[in-house]
Amino acid sequence: MRVTVDSDKCQGHNRCFALAPELFDVDEYGTAVVIGDGTVAADLEDKARLAVANCPEFAIGIED
Amino acid sequence: MTDVYGPVSDWENDFDHAVPEYNERAHDIWAEFQASGCPVAHSDRYGGLWAPFTHELVHEIAYDTDHFTSQGVVVNTGRPLIEAPVGPAPPITSDPPFHNIARRLLLPPFSPKVIAAWEPEVRRLCRELLDRMGEITPGESVVDAAVQYAQSIPVNVIARMLGFPTEDEELFRGFVHDVLERINEPVEARLEFMQRLDDYLTEQIEEHRANPRDDLTSYLLGVEIEGQKLSIEHVRGSIVLLLVAGIDTTWSAIGSSIWHLGTHPDDLQRLVDDPEVMLFALEEFLRAYAPVTMARLVREDHDFHGCPMKANDWVLLPFPAANRDPAQFDRATEFVIDRQENRHGAFGLGIHRCLGSNLARLELKVAVEEFVARFPAFTVDGEVTWSVGQIRGPRRLPVRVDAIA
Ligand code: HEM
Ligand code: SF4
After folding, report:
1. Chain B residues with beta carbon closer than 8 angstroms to that of A13
2. Among B125, B63, B133, which residue's Cα sits nearest to residue B95?
3. How far away, in angstroms, is A10 Cα from ligand 2 center?
4. Does A8 touch chain B (CB under 8 A)?
5. Domain that holds residue A28
6. Do B351 and A11 touch (CB under 8 A)?
7. If you ran DSSP here, which 8-state letter would residue B292 be given?
8. A27 has pLDDT over 90
9. Within a 10 A sphere around the Cβ of B25, how many other Cβ atoms?
10. Does A1 map to a domain?
11. Do A50 and B340 touch (CB under 8 A)?
12. What is the pLDDT of residue B181?
């Protein structure tokens, strides 16, 4: 599994970083970036889904 | 106070969010509109006002900066004197492309990591307010959680950030009350209190120019757009914004959350037994009791899903109603303390996402944590009064303390 952030849609609500800091970081403008290439370790898959389910701007994607 | 409009008898055609009944009954009013075939209210008050109540319509308007301008975001009897794209209080009153320029100046001091450093200070402040409540007898003592607690937290934090004297706390609350709650008074009255606010801020700004220091006011005086320092109007407008956006909003969020816990003992107990649930509870407080409704002005006459909107009409953006729309959320009207899927729009949607959201979350979380840590059992006991206007929250919140930790 891999997560992605669409930086055009992200408005910096910071929900992903709060829920899954292992997978997302935020820059000094509050915009989210994925950590590394976005690959999700098996034990973090639930957190990745949680981040998707809480992004108000529908900016996070998951690829299997 | 002179309310130029008077009470509402017909919510569909003579809508007014600034009558006290609106915030008292808001949840029912929204549910009625969402269930009716026509989810948009209209009124001739304020020179023309529309109010859509579904998530879909609120979302659409928030994203549509072509038809709707942010030049005015607080509905009132007048119209803003400074035009788009800058507006009187950048970036909230700015439209693209200027909006992004003004917003980027303010984002770094409010970024998650910079704000996280304020946590010890916020916690200290909350504890001090709890200490100041004095001797408490469990089962008997009644404290006002809005007046003695919630209302002092954000105003102290933002005054410190701006480098303003915290003794002026009462004055700041007065300014915010004028701007946000005295919206149905004649234009002349509004101009007069706006002038008082401007005069106070001009004085503070001059003082900072003479003695620059490490605070937001000095920061705004130092930053540049394309090699130019900001105009005094821009600096003052942004400070007005931070004061107005930072105080009643967060006070309301803290108050509503404590109101919920004081009327729902199971949720209070869950938070006491399982403090980790706060990660989700925080967002559910924000969803179910979102305090902030924004507004836009219609740019040019246009037909919005059959609503004949006219240039310069106001349009409310009730994010709190969108957050309780059953078409968007499961069990929308219920408070689900550990809700797993929660794409709420309490901080807005689209380009104006609340710049202070990291600070607001920190204040709300710490305020509720500290209150519950000190008073693990309490019950709302007495008459609760609610704010009027676009910011919704309790202004008097008597709670009986049933246990002290
Ligand atoms: C729970 C508390 C708060 C809530 C619910 C809230 C809500 C909102 C909402 C809904 C908007 C969007 C405005 C729009 O679409 O026109 C907004 C914008 C804004 N808020 Fe907040 N706010 C809160 C606290 C704060 C605090 C503490 C600050 C800063 C001290 C702040 C500063 C701002 C600013 C500067 C904007 C304008 C952003 C822009 O236009 O780009 N807010 N807020
Ligand atoms: S939750 Fe969505 S909008 Fe918020 S920072 Fe993450 S990607 Fe951006």
Report:
1. 347, 353, 357
2. B63
3. 5
4. no
5. 8-32
6. yes
7. B
8. yes
9. 13
10. no
11. yes
12. 80
The domain spans of chain B are: 20-403
Ligand 2, atom 4, lies closest to the CA of A13
Residues of A in contact with B283 (CB under 8 A): 15, 54
Contact of B246 with B136, CB cutoff 8 Å: no
> In this structure, are residues A22 and A51 in contact, taking their beta carbons and an 8 Å threshold?
no
Q: Do A54 and B345 touch (CB under 8 A)?
A: no
Cα separation of the two ends of chain B: 43
Structure tokens at B158: 């933002």
Nearest residue by C-alpha to atom 39 in ligand 1: B352
Beta strand extents in B33-182 (DSSP E only): 40-43, 49-52, 68-69, 142-144
- B187-210 vs B232-246: helix crossing angle, rounded to 10: 110
In CATH, what is the architecture of B20-403?
A: Orthogonal Bundle (1.10)
* Interval B214-262: pLDDT, tens: 999 999 999 999 999 999 889 999 999 998 899 999 999 999 999 999 9
Q: How far is it between the farthest Cα atoms of chain A?
A: 30
B46 has a chain A CB within 8 A of its CB:
no
How many C-beta atoms lie closer than 10 Å to residue B97's C-beta? 8
Q: What total number of domains does chain A contain?
A: 1
Q: Which residues of chain B have pLDDT under 70?
A: 1-3, 82-85
- For ligand 1, pick from B151, B244, B286, B354 the residue to mutate: most ligand atoms within 8 Å of CB: B354
Ramachandran sector of residue B386 (left: φ over 0; alpha: ψ -120 to 50; beta: rest): beta
